[in-house]
Amino acid sequence: MPFSALKLHPTLVRGVDKLGFKRPSPIQSEAIPPALEGRDLLACAATGSGKTAAFLLPILHQLVDRPRGTTRALVLAPTRELACQIRDDLNALAQFTGLKSAVVHGGVAMGPQQTAFRRGADVIIATPGRLLDHFQYHYAALSGLEYLVLDEADRMLDMGFLPDIRRVLRHVPKPKQIFFFSATMPPPIEKLTREILQEPAKITLQRKAAPAEGVSHAAYPVLANQRGALLVDLLRRGHIDDALVFTRTKHRADRLARLLNRNGIFAERIHGNRSQPQRTKALAGFKSGKFRVLVATDIAARGIDVEALGHVVNFDVPAAPDDYIHRVGRTARAEATGEALTLVMPESEADLAGIERALGLTIPRIRLEDFAYGVAPSAPQGGNAKNRAKSTAQRSGNARWSTAKPANGKRAATQSANGSSEGKNRPRRRRYGKRRT
Ligand code: AMP
Predict the structure, then answer these.
(1) Distance, CA 305 to ligand 1 centroid (Å)?
(2) Domain total of the chain
(3) Residue nearest atom 20 in ligand 1 by C-alpha distance
(4) Domain with 45 in it: what CATH number?
(5) Same domain, yes or no, for 223 and 155?
């Protein structure tokens, strides 16, 4: 089905064309028609499915011919990064419409956000905490609000935002339409949907939440104190060219970024202790290719959208299957292919097995040939940089790469690794993933 079949406003079709979107993604073709008819939406879609345009396009369509200067749509998102990503998507989709958006999140001054409320930005995209700060003032009454979106509602629940969401709902006028998006539907979220949605069109693309197709999965068993060295080797040998690397803690993110930099691999980090300008700079540097690796904690990584990011690395096995989905959802977005690598310590095997069971995946275990397994590095998270760099550079060899098969036997995307480490450590532009045809 082409985009034109959705009968969107011509300015939006132009925007979609300009972005190079050839046809609506499944979530878009299912969500947009009922949304244009004025129905509420309840969508359970994996990240990377094109869900942002699925809720933005119908809203923009309904706003484009309306008088300007009134905020008619509010999008709630769990993190600053996701809010900014939605704003960027909106600006791209609405580039020929003249519609204006503003983003409202913590960590930056209130003043410009206040101006956006006063001027009546057509769409405000906000994180709940900062939005509630503004709600204390009369300029933020949002009395003309008609459309409300809750994006990544399950993540907002995880982050403890459910009471804040309820406060927001009490403050704003009853919206004409609500679009509710969540990758998973835990019971408190389901309860909320029953309370606030009216006969919503229900869109569930997968029965069970699952990582986007096009991701191949691999696990590297390794001892805890050798994970840093293994990751350095994978990067040096070119098995990974650029990667978003997840750690469970902020402290570990810092230490890992330092280790990588000491080994000549440009890395930055993004987590809750970093200021908004630092996060923005790290993300921009990663997107431009200045940094080859971005180390992130789960929460900070929400909303990171790097077009066709090749690799996501779980430096720690994520605590829950949903986290795995969210993490690997950062790669293979919108029909590209990508790789999810998990470093698995013996003590985390049970967690990984739980994730495999929950997602119906069998993740192949890979051994990196010629890696000094079992030989304790002198300083796994640091040490003499010069010597470490030398010893890792001296090692060579290829990892056997195979792909995970979903339980139904359908083959996921294949990927071969090349063993060259030449020139892998210099900054580069983001490599664009292959589009599946
Ligand atoms: P989302 O699930 O909204 O985070 O979308 C992920 C990515 O898919 C973004 O980079 C979008 O630009 C891209 N995208 C959204 N819709 C389409 C489409 N119909 N065709 C190709 N790419 C798309």
Answers:
(1) 10
(2) 2
(3) 21
(4) 3.40.50.300
(5) no
